Amino acid sequence: MFYRETGDFKTSYAADAQIFPIALDRWAFWLALAFAFLAVPFLIDDYWEKSVLLPFMIFALAAIGLNILTGYCGLVSLGTGGFMAVGAYASYKLMTEFEGLNIFVIVLLSGGITAAVGVLFGLPSLRIKGFYLAVATLAAQFFLVWLFNKVPWFYNYSATGMITVPERTMFGIAVTGPAAPPWATYLFCLVLLTLLGFAAKNMVRGRIGRSWMAIRDMDIAAQIIGVPPLQAKLSAFAISSFYIGVAGALYFCVWFGAVEPTEAFGINQSFLVLFMVIIGGLGSMLGSFLGALLLVVLPILLKNLMVDAAGMAPVLARHFEITIVGALIVFFLIVEPHGLARLWAMAKERLRHWPFSY
Amino acid sequence: MRKAILAAAGAAALGLVAVPTLAAAAELVVPALSYRTGPYAPNGIPFADGFIDYFTLLNERDGGIEGVPVKVVECETGYNTQRGVECYESTKGQGALVYQPLSTGITYQLIPKATEDGIPIHSMGYGRTSAANGKIFPSVFNFPGTYWDAASIIVKHIADLEGGDLKGKKIALVYHNSAYGKEPIRTLEELSKKHGFELMLLPVDHPGQEQKATWLQVRREKPDYVTMWGWGVMNQVAVKEAASVRFPMDHFIGVWWSASENDVLPAGEDADGYKAVTFHGVGDDFPIYGDLKANVYDKGKAAGDGSQAGTVLYNRGMLAAMWAAEAMRKAMEIHGTKDLTPAMVRDGYEALDVDEARLAALGLPNFTVPVKVTCGNHGGPGLGAIQQWDAKAKEWKLITDYIPADREVVDPLITEDSEAYAKEAAITPRECTM
Amino acid sequence: MLFFIEAVISGLLAGVMYALVALGFVLIFKASEIFNFAQGVMCLFAALTLAGLILGYTPFAEILHTLGLPSTWMPVFPLWLAIPLTIAVMIGLALLIERLILRYLVNQEPIILFMATIGLAFVLEGIGDLMWGSDVKPLDIGLPSGASDWMLDSFDIYVEKLEVAAAVIAAILVVLLTLFSQYTRIGRALRAVADDHQAALSVGISLRTIWVIVWSIAGFVALVAGVMWGAKSGVQFSLSLIALKALPVLILGGFTSIPGAIVGGLIIGVGEKVAEIYLGPFIGGALENWFAYVLALAFLLVRPQGLFGERIIERV
Description:
The complex is a heterotrimer of chains A (358), B (434) and C (316). Chain A has 358 residues and is mostly helical. Chain A is 72% helix and 2% strand. In chain A, helix 3 (46-72) packs parallel to helix 7, helix 3 (46-72) packs across helix 8 and helix 4 runs parallel beside helix 6. The longest helix of chain A is centred in the C-terminal third of the chain and has 28 residues, at 229-256. Chain B has 434 residues and is an alpha/beta fold. Chain B has 15 helices and 14 strands. In chain B, the strands form 4 sheets. In chain B, strands 5, 6, 7, 8, 9, 12, 13 and 14 form an 8-stranded mixed beta sheet that branches. The B-C interface holds B 36-39, 41-42, 45, 177, 201-205, 207-210, 212-214, 216-217, 219-220, 232-233, 236-237, 240, 243-246, 262, 265-266, 268, 270, 305 and C 3, 6-7, 10-11, 14, 61, 65, 129, 134-136, 138, 140, 145-147, 152, 158, 160, 229, 232-234, 236-239, 241-242, 245, 272-273, 276-277, 280, 284-286, 288-289.
């Protein structure tokens, strides 16, 4: 019905290595991308930008980052919030120290700085495994937030330790600060997400991604066939932190504009991103997006349905919302323990055979 | 199957569109960014109840403000900045006239946005202190007093107790390790230079259930006084720990956010004598409560379960609503229309003048300090009284008159900090005649 | 010197409080290899239920009120009745968890079970609030509190009575748990399951029953921890965040060892208090949180499996 292909016929290596081997998927993807780039910017207002699209894109980016580490390389990290803080504070310091620097460069540089910090905190992973490794990243989480809260140099000696973003432009249009139009911030994030998304997808399909997965599946065996665990683990930490740092920089510069470390980058944020990755699907790009969708957009959706459409008292709605999200998490796990991405893959498999399921 | 998916997708799309119920012309939309969930809910609930009940009273008794009904749109933030922003964006489209976020974090977040959108913010006794400078923050109001006022009032009170001389004394600040808790540090540092007392800083991390180390330090260093900038569970634990280490409770003075019944009741008898600075009266011995009972509680229209009436935070919520209502009344007067826009309400706030006579007319005689906002001063009179907890009677008592803040210390700091902000955000201060 | 002793005593006692929370995690992890993220919320839920019963709150009052039903009909329960009732509620909860969640997730990977407990934590948080409201509930069940006057007057050492009580209760709890697992039939079954699921199944031990029992015991431990912490600050949402304090304890002590939880708690408690007091003034206060993890990390670099954890033997 949906998929009208008749089996796998590949005539070239290029065809075999495609990201979307099915033509329909390919078209759908390009159509969606075109829609996101060409149509959405004209449709959105402040609400869509600040409450739905930016959070979704930024958390998707952070989830991709964590998925590289946890999903592909098998290293559990609870330091996401701390690494996002590194990205945010790096971008703030870069912006205020080097006035003329382009915001795009700043965001990427912040990612680079976060990568360096990530490698540093990734060192214990060479010795510690599993849940125990989480402690190293938790130490990073609490230490980094404490550091940004404590050392006045990081927040330019402001009275309260809040950092506020100055206005920066791309092609003459503000992308940070309160005057930035919704479509500009949206496009800015979308460009980064698209670029980094493609980069990540190709990395995990390439040599480096395979070395991560080898380490994940069995580190000793991987070592024997010649995958260096030091390089693999640290590169996973570096690249993962890069993505998370970029997400943190965007979180601060583009989405919020003013943050304080204790709340914005607390342990809750680390848990939230980890939940996204697990619910979405460990070791799946699509999963990162689905996880972000479920945990960022669904609560807003539920809230709007219950409060605005059904007229429920906001506090009751909030209680129900958290209960429903929790119940949905359990429900999805029972239906498919390997995450939403696997659920989608299975649905697609069914659709390909439908209506003749043989 | 496909139909089900389509239906689900449809419902999803529908749910995301923040139903744009455009305010009918004759309606004043006031969003209440409340928090009745999460770690700070015990403080958020009474404030929100007081805020909403006051507007309900206006609607029920007078048919609104000058005959225009008020529509309070409640939005749950959970004291979480992310949700606060979502609430702001979703209520903005409904014609919101003024925002009161009741969270220093969310206030910082909204200051640039709301200024850009031309919607006033009233962060009553919280938020960014230097927003008191109306030349640089035209849309932000934080009267009747700021954290820096509070800090200087507390120090003044201590000086009074000590007979005016603080040389060689030691004062400790126990604070919530966040933007909110750090606010008073700069002022206290200035004041310690001026008065020659030693300042000791003791941060407590969110949420603050474990303060052993903090209070052991108090026990070792033996400061003469302890002040506190706490919120939520931190207050209760601090009061209890202070009593445990036998710190004299009347030498322990909190800011106005560390002084609700919730904070002292769990400590029982031990909390007796704990002090805090405040800017409004306590209890339900005011004429307005008669009206509230007749028009709101008895009709079953109270926002909460009614158990909060007369508590400190309920009164404070009511006060916030009262000033908002008066500002809107003023705006109608200035602009000669009943169809208000946010910009008009901003003008109303800036021309706000609620004196004792007006308070009495509103059923709140001697309830709070008279407030007169001007173009340059959005921080109000900066007056505060000291209240003390009586554990036997289970009530707060005002024990001093309203004390003025130390303007010669606070004002230069406000100018300095706001000008730094103006420079960073490239704002040209506007001219003010007064 | 005297002050140092005082700091260490305070640290030890705080450590016991952490260990109480950590115990619940260990019990469940031992029997089913589930890292129960919901343990903190279970503490909150148990304490809320107890406080709600004692104070005569009506469950789901808000919903009942919205629906126009009578919402103030609960009597005030005396303590001797409220405690068994709360325990019954926790057992009921364990049954529900097994029936609705665990049953469907047998033999899944640990991370998935972990995720399920996160969902459970959300659900419990929502339902707890719906049932009992989110205001602060003072919990006074006659536990001693305040400083011990005797210690303070005769030795000038500050010791919190509540925490001494907690230490005594924790000791009793550990002895009871040990006796239970050594000398009762169910206890032996528990140990068998912890040792080897498959082997236990094959000798006829019902995994489901065991799980219900384990979760019930964890619920009981959660109640104890919730009461001790709740007595300190009143019962409110923040109670669920104490789980974070138990995390370094667990990591240090190993997930599978009850003595590990206690010893880990003591080490973390002393370490962070002493660091905060003696290091805080030099590099800035409020470092307790990360210091606990750094301490745990330092231990782990020497013993990667935790203090009392089982040695991991790797084979290809």
